[in-house]
Amino acid sequence: MKQQRLLLFTIGLNVIFGTIIITLLSGQRSQRQDNYQVIYTELQTHGETNGNSSQHQVLLATNLREEQVVEPSSQHEVLLPKNLREKPVVQTISPPHWTVFLNGTVVHVGNSPQKYNFSYLINSHQEICSNWTKDSNKLKLVMIIKSNVINFDRRQTIRETTGLRILQQQLNYRIVFLLGIEADYFSMKNDSETWKIQTKVHKESLEYGDIIQLDIIESFRNLTMKAIMSLDWYINFCSSADISLSTDDDIYIHAPNLMSQMSQFKSKGLVDRHITCNQNTWMPILREKNGKNKYTLTEDELPGKFFPQYCSGFGYAFGLDVAKKIYEQTFLTPYVFIDDAFITGFCRYKAEIDVVHNENFALNPSVTDKNTACQFKKGRITSNQFDFHQIINIWKYVNKIPRNCTEKS
């Protein structure tokens, strides 16, 4: 009898301990799942991995097609957001939340809040974005031309060619020049040459009313700041324009071809969901071993081998809704000083904006005196990079009558 009671007691204890163990295991499993959800949410909203101070987060794994939940073996492993276009197998996140695909392409995941502190010194928006044609069906476009503050001759050349006021009025587009400053205010006050430059810019603005100047010092690594502010200016001061074109002051723009093709871009319903440009694919990230130049990036600045697909910076266009979506991402994405890759690559990718490739935004073949008529008759929008003397020559050949074009030329 005692042996039976002892046996029953032992069985009872085993059942109780078994229940406790199952409960604990279930709790651990639930806790691991909860940790995963917390990590995933923080990655999406704050760009942080569960408060971990380590800068290097490693090894992500998921099957996006089957949407399987892969439980992390540590708090460094998370499931990638579903909006990633590619189907990664293993991802590596390095600071701050860069994601490198197996093919070497790098994108940014989650939110890494950025703070920028700059403002407008000159803002001629009232003169630029007004007096559009009364025909509401006619496309309204603003060209935002990035120009170094000292490039007075280039700006004047554009005003006398593509920027002719009568042409702007007839085709319903506007031109604005986006400038930085040669030096900060205190340095300018102590340097007569830089002060003369700033005084000349003020006079230029008063005379032509087409200058936007930012308190950003002109340098290659500040071009991304200028690009961010070009979005800010379009959204806040020229939202009446249907499309914004970003370009540079060493590019000739064939305005009739531009307006014709951008009108088609809008009529097809693409303007609010796409960006159009000459798209770069498989652009390598240059390292010092490739030869140090101004485009070189270190592994700490940006991991991976290739940029995401992005637009060539000499000409890309989009509508207001696209500008707002990309602009939002500029404050949630780590700063990359290569402006076209940052704006139309990383930020565009996160904003889920697609690219419509347009081969008429082109640098090649080079435009020459002999082939100018043929190149632009075929619909080309942009030239290769020119100095202001060459732009004047191209303008003359474009408007030469008769416009003779033969395939041999």
Task: State the main characteristics.
12 helices; Spore Coat Polysaccharide Biosynthesis Protein SpsA, Chain A; alpha/beta; eight-stranded mixed beta sheet
Describe the structure.
- By secondary structure, the protein is α/β, with parallel strands linked by helices.
- The protein has two domains: 1-112, no CATH class; 120-398, Alpha-Beta Complex (Spore Coat Polysaccharide Biosynthesis Protein SpsA, Chain A).
- Helices cover 37% and strands 19% of the residues.
- It is built from twelve helices and 14 strands.
- The chain has helices at residues 2-45, 125-128, 152-159, 165-171, 185-189, 192-208, 223-237, 255-267, 320-330, 339-350, 372-377, 388-398, and strands at 57-61, 90-94, 98-100, 106-108, 120-123, 141-146, 173-181, 211-217, 243-248, 251-253, 274-280, 310-319, 354-357, 382-385.
- An eight-stranded mixed sheet has the order 5-8-7-6-9-12-11-13, with helices on both faces. It has a four-stranded antiparallel sheet with strand order 1-2-3-4.
- Strand 2 and strand 3 form a beta hairpin.
- Helix 7 (223-237) packs across helix 9.
- The longest helix has 44 residues, at 2-45.
- The radius of gyration is 28 Å and the shape is globular.
- The relative contact order is 0.11.
- Residues 20-94 have low confidence and may be disordered.
